[in-house]
Amino acid sequence: MWDDDRMSIDNHAHPLLTAENRYHVEAEGAALEDAIYTLPHAAARRDLVRLYGLPPHASWEDVKQDRAARLYDELCRMCFREAKIQCILIDDGLGGVKEIAEGYQWHDNYTTSPTRRIVRVEIVAQEILTELVQAFWHAGFEEIDTVEDVLPMFSSSLHKRLSSSAEDPNVAGFKSVVCYRTGLDVATLPNEDAEVGALHDVYRHYRTGINTPLRLAHKPLNDLVVRTTLKIAAMHNKPVQFHTGLGDADITLTRASPAHLQPLIAANPRTTFVLLHASYPYMREAGYLTAVYKNVYLDIGEVFPAVSGRGQEALIRQVLELVPTNKVMWSSDGHWWPETYYLGSYQARQALSVVLQEAVKADELTKDEAARVAKDILFHTANRVYLLGLEAQHVSRE
Predict the structure, then answer these.
(1) What is the H or E stretch that residue 260 is in?
(2) Where are the domains of the chain?
(3) Which CATH class is domain 8-21+39-385?
(4) What pLDDT digit, counting tens, does each position of 30-43 carry?
(5) Most exposed residue of 89, 119, 209, 338, measured as fewest CB within 10 angstroms of its CB?
């Protein structure tokens, strides 16, 4: 239906581990024990068996043994060659990145176009808060109530640093994880009293646990960070990605629906919003926002490989019920291990092919229209939205 050797733009991913940390395990918790009984887990084994060239019924132990015998560089090259990724937009704000993962530009070893950064704004804000409270502590303040203009100090530093990032040609956009911290129901208007009170709480928390890293988890401050980001992003024409939908156990699912963002979207018509992860399981809510607001786009990452094959196909069908096809973008949400990039790409292409062929058979799309949809989702829309200016390339089979 379309040239499957065409390479793609991965509009949202995370760094790979260093070779020394290639066996790092991230997941924790009792629920992890049940993951091996899921359909996505079975599909991942099947697809990794294919990747490694093992017999069809090879076990997970066989997969792990084969992986362990490979040089890390060889493993990365194989995964990225099969993933057919031309350019990656990397959010390097994950916890532990500096200690165990590679810098974003290192990934250029495995792509044909330079990697670009996505700046996670809550991490920037946390760094500023840490600097402020440490300065107050070393100055001997028991409370910051006596320090004038604390809120303007924080706001000014945040504005300056985000503006500096926006002016960096290596930065393609911003990302907010406010969904994790205090939910997507971000206030559209400031409340200075609440913001100052939150800063006082942050300082008290620091005083009682000096060696505990600060985490931005006060709603007035989280909302302030998001509003500031949206204004700066509009000034510099940088998209803002929002984590929506599925995540880890520390997310409140009922506050993860993108429907909560509607007032914020309406209040910031000059800012480009990118709803990440298809907002699963809120695909139709995301589709509605993408259809009725010019400044909203939908990413369909992470569900590959987190959701079963049929679930992936159903998700794409729901997305295409209403969303303009030129407003959908693919991502792998790859992180830590190169296989996550491969699985995210391979399964997305498989599911997209099935759904688009169905649309052609149902006379909803012509073959040429279906090919255009695939090319937009995999490359052209991200290229346009993030102003990357790339020429589409094909996989080299040399």
Answers:
(1) none
(2) 8-21+39-385
(3) alpha beta
(4) 556 788 889 999 99
(5) 209
